[in-house]
Specification:
Length: 140
């Protein structure tokens, strides 16, 4: 994927993020994710039924990379079963950390495959993926 297309996808998901807005519904599992190194602080809500991620909502204050990564993550994981979601998250983490990964597993999230060139941005891209992984590991 060329760099202009990557930039356009990231910008679109920053300016018009999918699944933004919390429900405050008690049937959702909530987690707060925040960065110690920058402004990023995102609240996530996940609705998991019958081992399927039915919905993910988020809100908070974050940079363009964190917001767009969260938007793409929600679109990527909604509808997946827990094991599929864990594998996608694992591949995303490997990609960000410059380890061998399955490119086909990531879908639109592949736009972050060059983020390791900006080490200070890696945490921005990973923040809510790690939070989602934590929810899945503790609750599923």
């Amino acid at each position: 994927m060329d760099s202009d297309l990557k930039r356009a996808i990231i910008l679109e998901n920053y300016q018009n993020p999918s699944n933004r807005g919390l429900t405050h519904d008690s049937s959702y599992i909530s987690i707060n994710t925040n960065s110690k190194s920058c402004i990023d602080e995102i609240d996530l809500e996940l609705k998991i039924e019958d081992n399927i991620i039915k919905d993910i909502k988020f809100d908070g204050e974050a940079c363009a990379i964190c917001t767009s990564s969260t938007s793409i993550m929600t679109k990527t994981l909604i509808g997946k079963n827990v094991n599929e979601a864990k594998k996608i998250i694992e591949n995303f983490e490997k990609m960000i950390n410059e380890e061998e990964y399955d490119e086909q597993a990531l879908g639109e999230a592949i736009v972050y495959n060059d983020i390791s060139k900006q080490p200070n941005r890696k945490n921005c891209a990973l923040l809510t993926w790690k939070g989602t992984k934590e929810v899945l590991e503790k609750n599923c």
